Amino acid sequence: MSLTGRKVAILVENFYEDLEFWYPYYRLKEEGADVTVVGTGSSTLYKGKHGLEARPDITADQADPGAFDAVVIPGGYAPDYMRRYPALLKFVNEVHSEGGIVAAICHAGWVLASAGLAKGLRMTCFSSIKEDLINAGADYVDQAVVRDRNIITSRFPADLPVFCREIIAALETTVLTAKTGSPTAS
Predict the structure, then answer these.
(1) How far apart are CA 91 and CA 157, in angstroms?
(2) Do residues 16 and 54 touch, judged by C-beta distance below 8 A?
(3) Helix (H) or strand (E) holding 93
(4) Which of 96, 107, 125, 164 is catalytic?
């Protein structure tokens, strides 16, 4: 229970990649994190690409970025919808600005690009959006997991074990400092 006391938001929208939502959701809960499902507000029930359903606890416009230590963004087709919601982009950007961990897998790099967070960072993603991240100013690398400051990225479902280990390690070793807006090692 190494994450007891940590609050993590996991974003949801229709057509999320089921594994990329549920694997981190349960893995983080297993470590003791308080996980909140944050939806775009377009629905009260979201369906994954493979049919699993997820109910949001709150919507992005209701979520207080300062209350969260991290936000996890699953991939699938959902990120293309997520990035159309200014409140969601603002939430992600503010969690980042306050020093929180922002973790994105697969197509979730689109959300980071649309939130203006990709420029100047080493990142990875699903290969089909690699050019989108490069055009947003990221330094793309093809690795299972990449951490650059408080941004963690991965490529696809097979990377979930290392993706989740990196999120957990970041939350275990980072003191979040809202006043400075950047994480520092503890």
Answers:
(1) 25
(2) yes
(3) helix 86-97
(4) 107
